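Supplementary notes for students who missed Thursday's class. We covered one full example, reproduced here. Read the sequence, then the structure, then the short commentary at the end.
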Amino acid sequence: MFGIHHLVGLAFCILSLMATGFTLAAAATLFFRPARARPGKSSRAPVTLLKPLHLAEPGLEENLRSFFRLDYDGPIQIVFGAQSRKDPALCVIEKLVREFPAANVKIVTDPAFGGSNPKVANLINMLAHARHEILVLSDSDIRVQPGYLHEILAALDEPEVGVVSCLYSGKPIGNVWATLAAMGIGYHFLPNVCLGMALRLTEPCFGSTIALKRRVLDEIGGFESLANVLADDYELGRAVREKGYRLSIPRAFAVEHVCSEQTFSQLFRQELRWARTNLLVAKSGYAGTLLTYPLPLAIIAVLLQGFSVLPLAVLGAAIASRACLAFQSDRFLGVRCGSLWLLPLRDVLSFAIFVASFFGHTVEWRGTRYVTADDGALAQLEGA
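Structure (token representation):
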């Protein structure tokens, strides 16, 4: 039995060393950050911003206010959508409309549900009220800088680009759970995405921002084609690429994803949904992300082999690589995502969610439980 423990522990040492190398490679991709793009000729084009809403999560008012404060010379229409006239998010909108009376705002409240994905159903209802050819949609937990539209439209104006998305950092508001959520974005998600794009292993599309022209949306069948899938953002990007267009993700800037998780349960359910979404999108590639967890793998090796020289050395290398990546990520984003003292807890939690994602087919989305199929289809659980 000791021999088996030793061999399994050695295997985890090897996996951890491979993951350490992967981590350092991810840190290297964050070393250089391109200069911010200058506004292009399209910087005055009329734009419709689509903001689907559901309840008034913490930070919502400031998130939405950032879109009212955009520094942009062209016409901007903001379409807010909710599926209930009693949605508390609408009270926030009414306050902002009074604060910015010159803003061109349309509020759509429509209970029609054109599919199992509630966000897409909302977008379908909102699109009929969009006036302009250029559409920019983003989730309600996104916060942007005044020059946001100039950056997005400069990318959309590049040759053969059909859709633009954005990297994002985590901005915690609240307690340690929100901080851990922000660290998960900055110290795990962001570096892995940047490395995946650098190696041409992935072309992601994020709900942080999706900008495209209405004619391109029509070419892929409109929002209706995404009405029953879980990974609607990814599937939209994939559908646009299949039409022969390029997907652009500018590395020169990132928007903020506001993390407002107040409990461990909220954090776990949110990240488990993200994990199972990624598993549905690319099963084999997602399994390979085992090599993004050097610290948990090293801890397992120590537990199996005891506190001998090899596993402790591997553990030290794993800690050093993760600290290096955290430093580079903070430098790349220009903000500190969290404390290094919380990094081991963050890594162990991420690994636990990774393992849990392989067991079960249910996800929770804004308080409602859904079941996912192997093809990515989404259905609300009966009685949920």
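Commentary. The chain has a mean pLDDT of 89. The longest helix spans residues 2-29. If anything here is unclear, bring it to office hours.
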